[in-house]
Amino acid sequence: MKIDIPTERNHFLSRLNRDFTVSSSDARNIVSHFHRDMERGLRGKRSSLAMLPSFVGRPRGNEKGKFIALDLGGTNCRVLEVDLDGRRTASITAASRFAIPREVMRGDGTWLFDFLAGCLLSFFQELPVDKRREQVLAFTFSFPLAQRSIASGTLIRWTKRFKTSGVEGSDVAVLLSEAMERRGIGFIRLAALTNDTVGTLLAGCYADPACDMGVILGTGTNACYLERSARIHRAGLASRPGEMIVNLEWGNFNRLKTNRYDDALDAASLNPGWQRLEKMVSALHLGEITRLVIREMMEQGLLFREAGQSVFSEPYGLTAEDLSLLALDRKAFFTRACLADAAETDRDAVFEIGRLVTDRSARIAGAAIAAVLTWMDPDLKAGHTVAVDGSLFEKYPGYQARIMDALGSLRGEGAAEIKLVLTRDGSGIGSAIAGAVAAAAKR
Ligand code: BGC
Fold first, then answer.
1. Ligand 1 centre and the CA of 13: distance in Å?
2. Is residue 180 part of a domain?
3. What's the pTM?
4. Is 138 a domain residue?
5. What CA–CA distance (Å, rounded) separates 162 from 176?
6. Lowest mean pLDDT among 130-139, 145-154, 307-316, 353-362
7. 319: which of 23, 46, 232, 351 is 20 to 30 A away, CA to CA?
8. Per-residue confidence (pLDDT) for residue 410, from 0 to 100
9. Are 417 and 383 in contact (CB under 8 A)?
């Protein structure tokens, strides 16, 4: 039987629309499930949100001096020298970036930490520091950490593309210090260990005291916020006065309406069952979800019947950068994909799929931000500044506006202003601030 392609394609696309839409009631559900899981996590009960205490609170803004930060992110490692002027301005005075080889991400733990110590060593070969004086190092580790102090923390589980053996369950501060010793970098003292979201919030808060939430929307996704210690019923913290930053690890939130592409992506991933929100929202996975939809349409004969198809055959061959290009300059995207001659209707369909997938990501992120802000301030009576970093937020056309839309639809009458502020390099700068706070506390 011959299929009527235009009709079938329209059916397919309308179903897709339903599969990827986050309705207002879905968004409200996300908010209430977040609140429930945040509450459970803070009590140390089973929850998809780990709610990890960071052992650092709001900086004063007068922290001062030069600090070294080692920032291990999703794909790169950076070493930075950060200058804090003591009057709310932080600047990067030296920086080196190192790509993390795939073998290091999937190999043995010792390789990874030797690699990181090697990055520090090569940074110090370039930088004229007085090696007779102890240098304070802050380590940004962008993975879930169970901390018992600001300078120590056990890796709970790898996320993103990492699967290095022998690190889960170990204190990464100890592993790094041992590797630095092996490399003979004895003049460095590790003073602080922070998640990248915590760094971003600290950087945001150093510049603007109204900042009380940090978010990463990049290769991975996560958030943290300032919590009253009295609400953290863990590790004896509830009896402490004041506030502490809590890392939600929201990438693992698992009460979302998933579809068959999400389930296929999860089943084929390095960590099936974990990081379900991250797999629907973060830059690492958006291209792959889009590719899975395109593949299915191709298999059903609804797309690219004549054109070359190989660009969509490789898992993770389509990236979030490709999707940004598709949104910004369709012609350039299809030329790069060798599909410049494909039918207009096929190109329109691909454009629409990319839009649906990224739109959903921004809507979920918007609902998740609303959940955390309303946890802190149920009627949003005070103004809030959210420090955000990450390629998706910074570079994807229209992404920030979509988050603001989603937030707007969840805010009640009379809610005060919410500002999302791009906090570039926040993870490294903020970790240096944590180093300054920790060094001051030791004095
Ligand atoms: C990690 C978080 C991190 C986020 C952003 C996630 O995969 O679990 O700890 O903050 O990525 O880098």
1. 32
2. yes
3. 0.96
4. yes
5. 17
6. 307-316
7. 23
8. 83
9. yes
Which residue in the block uniquely carries the two structure tokens 């990438």?
A: 251
Domain around 88: 58-206+425-436
Is 242 within a domain? no
Ligand 1 centre distance from Cα of residue 144 (Å): 7
DSSP labels, 79-106: EEEEEEESSS-EEEEEEEEEEPPHHHHH
Residue 110 lies in a domain: yes
As beta bridge partners, residue 67 has 82
Instruction: Give 67-78 pLDDT, tens digit per residue.
Output: 999 999 878 899
pLDDT for 362-401, tens place per residue?
A: 999 999 999 999 999 998 989 999 999 999 999 999 999 9
Stretch (H or E) spanning 106: helix 102-106
Q: Are the C-beta atoms of residues 316 and 281 closer than 8 Å to each other?
A: no
Report the number of distinct structural domains present in the chain.
1
Best probe residue, ligand 1, of 156, 216, 425 (max atoms within 8 Å of C-beta)? 216
CA angle 385, 413, 224 (to 5 degrees): 30
Whichever domain contains 431, its CATH number is 3.30.420.40
Contact 198, 214 (CB under 8 A): yes
Nearest CA to ligand 1 atom 3: 142
